[in-house]
Amino acid sequence: MNAKLIFYPVLLQIALTLGIYVYLAIAKSRALKLRQVDLERRALDAGAWPDSVRKIANNLGNQFEAPVLYYVLALMLWALSAVNPFSLAAAWGFSISRVFHARIHLGSNHVPHRRTVFTIGCLLLLLMLAQCLWSLALEP
After folding, report:
1. How confident is the model over 83-96, as pLDDT tens digits?
2. Is 6 helix (H, G, I), strand (E, B) or coil?
3. Labelling 98: which of 10, 17, 81, 88 has CA 20 to 30 A away?
4. Which domain holds residue 103?
5. Which residues, in sequence order, are CB contacts of 55 under 8 Å at separation 6+?
6. What is the reported pLDDT for 74?
């Protein structure tokens, strides 16, 4: 199997994160135009922004939590030549779970649904971790 295939789902996660940056910039610009921002507090206090902007900013912060582990695991799988259909499916599953997580968070923000999708993503990270550990254990 071509080990570089692991980088396609990684690119999806990166594109998601960059897309949320753009969405946040648009939302902040809109809030500024509508004068919904406390200009004195905006540099240091997230509470200066309306809830709609804070929700996007919170989701952007989420893209630097579990996905950081994902990036490391994907690189480890590639470096260990451990990319196989199992690890590739887990990588795609994680990236897709993050898209669904962002959609829920930025939409209805229904916490039980968001938590379920987050849990699925974490389980997929555990599978990727197991694959890394397995590959390391098999190394001479």
Report:
1. 999 999 999 999 99
2. helix
3. 81
4. 3-138
5. 105, 106, 109
6. 98
The pLDDT, as a whole number, for residue 44 is 78
* Cα dist from 32 to 39, 42, 49, 54, 104, whole Å: 9, 10, 9, 13, 25
Within 8 A by CB and 6+ apart from 85, the residues are 1
CA distance 24 to 32: 12
Residue where the block lists tokens 């390391």? 136
Whether the model clears a pTM of 0.70, i.e. scores above it, the answer is: yes
Q: Based on the structure, what is the number of domains in the chain?
A: 1
Query: In which residue are the tokens 């905006």 written?
Result: 42
CA distance 112 to 115: 5
| pLDDT value, residue 56 | 96
Which stretches of the chain drop beneath a pLDDT of 70?
A: none
